[in-house]
Amino acid sequence: xxxxxxxxxxxxxxxxxxxxxQPSQARIRELVTQAMPLRSLKRTGxxxxxxxxxxxxxxxxxxxxxxxxxxxxxxRTVADGYLTDIRLFxxxxxDPDLFWVREHDDLEDATVHLERYDPAGDVTPPRQxxxxxxxAAELALRIARLQLRVDQMTQHYRALxxxxxxxxxxxxx
Length: 173
What we know:
The chain has 173 residues and is an alpha+beta fold. It has one domain (39-172). It is 34% helix and 26% strand. The protein contains 3 helices and 6 strands; from the N terminus they run H-E-E-E-E-E-E-H-H. Strands 3-4-5-6 form a 4-stranded antiparallel sheet. A two-stranded antiparallel sheet has the order 1-2.
């Protein structure tokens, strides 16, 4: 039986070599890498959000005097969408780190979200709040500490948002 001439036939016509018309393993790996998101953003209480894009602005404020700090990022996706990524890191083991990610259709929506975000929602009550029947003085002290924490978080967050929005404005100009 004569051997088939592989030079003159289309890949589908090559008997015994059906794999020759398929992409190579290297090309498959290249296509998978292109299709896979390059990054993944951690989210509190949810699965990480995979996305392909780049960070267009970031602000981070670590202050030694505070027991926490915020990091705020704005990302642009390859699909021309935007992501806001608000992260709260706590220096104490009692308070969890929080990661809030939200998708936006345009940059204006993302900036409005950052301006309207309320960091008071990130405050976790101290464990002593669950204690039964504290004295009035103890209760007033706990409330004052909690209000101080809310005020510190709000001021810290607002300062970072101001820096981030200034960075975005300069980049757009």
